[in-house]
Target: Phenylacetate 2-hydroxylase
Amino acid sequence: MDIMFLISNSTVLVLSGLFLTTTAVVYVYLRFFYVDIPKIDGIPEIPSGEILAGHLYKLGNDHATTAEAWASKYGWPVFQLRMGQRRAIMLNSFEAARDWMVKNQAATLDRPWFHTFHGVISATSAATIGTSPWDERTKKQRRVVGSFTTGPSIQKLRKVLHMETCAVISSLYYDSQKGRTDIMPHIYQERLALNLMMMFCYGTRFSSVEDPLLLQILKDGSTIASFRSTSSNAQDFIPHLRYLGENKRTATAKEVRGRRDQWLAKMLDNVRGNLNLRTGPKKSVAEMLLVDSSKDDLTELDIKTILGGLMSGGFETIYSTAIITIGMLSTLQGQPMQQEAYEDIMKVYDTPADAFNLCLTEEKSPYVMGLVKEALRFFPPLKLLPARQTYTEFVYQGATIPKGVLVYMNTQAINRDKNTYGPDADQFRPGRWVEKDHGIPPPYHFAFGAGGRMCTAVNFSNRVLYALFLRLIISFNMTENKLSPPNTDYINYKRDSTESNAIASKFKVNFTPRDTAVLEQCLEQAQDELTDLLPGVVAEPLIR
Ligand code: HEM
Model:
């Protein structure tokens, strides 16, 4: 009996010792080693982070909106928080974003490595430039991409832009029975954005909005984009989630990766197969890269990374900006904007047909240029910009910011900063950009980011949006459908607040032609000009 007592007593002692030691080890690990970077002195921290998740789950389903609410509740334009085991800084004001990204650009141009996007999605093929860390290779890729999306290269894309904007106008016109029925404009803008990028990258396009491959690419593209969102990938920040059972997100990532690899390879192979058949100047980026890769010392992986970056960078951003702007213009509030834009255009051009044709090569209407800026300011497609990571240590307002910290720009808050845009920052008002001395300094808004990793295609994107909006305004009077109007609230317009790209929820619009004779004449002329768009490419009839 005594012996039994002694044994069980010593077992209890051993077990208690083990328990205490384990608890102490776990405590020391969580307290001192779990988070990658200790609290940064001099930058306020959002209170009550959880032990493992930090503030990740407290950010809810709409990270940008919660962060904006915290910034205003505490009066902290810049704060630190914990995304699981990663320390992060959130920038919520225009001045702070300029200080970090423009004035300290050399210190903030790195990007982090994320388990799901880099470790799973990009494991079998390339990542994208926009997600690559800063090194010689990324620098080279950025240089090559920059050369495709500035100055003379944009002029070379004139015919592609001509085709895709005409395809939108023509489809809206005929599919709505010349304005007699209201239609949902989303798929037309989605196809415009995808075709622009497909033509630009691979020299090919979809001529029907019902093409099954088009629909598959759109679906896969948006799933892949969701892996870059901060709100759908807890396993990137809380490591043990990666190993707990079969992670659903990882399974989806693998499935979509398989399909994506297939269609990317098919498109590149098609270009490679046609290379020798084509004479004359190489037109698509893939052609140029395949032919000139030795000149720029590019590997097959570089080529895939560049093309992946262009496709994913350009597609959803252009689509989401285009669709919400059409929604906004169609509302009651948007009617005087359409009128003002039309009058402004007609001040610069003699006829609507001249405006229709010349907008591809020049940006002459200040009001339409203002509309593009205001659309990107008020409805930035990416609300939390792709994460940056500090590349070197630097000092910000007396606080020493160490190397390796995550940095997020909250464009939703930055782009509506009342200190920069004035008391009407919460209103959509393209006219603000036309006023002399509006006093808003470059980069004017942060939809394209800023500094050393700013979007490489700012001029290209502005030109696309300018030409699209001008052609729509010259062609139609857009009015919302009373039963299915657009939601234009800057927070609630999104179909899904957890997506990294803010796509407007569904709505219908009436596209009444301003002048059918002029419109049909413009489309006929375009059809004649576009017969030789690219050899072997299926253009589509613009007149039906
Ligand atoms: C409305 C259109 C667009 C918007 C709002 C947009 C926005 C952005 C943003 C916010 C970034 C990250 C910037 C930063 O971290 O500071 C970015 C990066 C990038 N964008 Fe765009 N983008 C657009 C169109 C395009 C297009 C059309 C292309 C390609 C032709 C493109 C290619 C890229 C690339 C390659 C990067 C990666 C840059 C890097 O990390 O070094 N973007 N874009």
Summary: The chain has a mean pLDDT of 88. The pocket of protoporphyrin IX containing FE is lined by residues 129-130, 142, 145, 149, 309-310, 313-314, 317-318, 321, 376, 381-382, 385-386, 388, 447-450, 453-457, 460-461 (CB under 6 Å). The first strand starts at residue 78 and ends at 83.
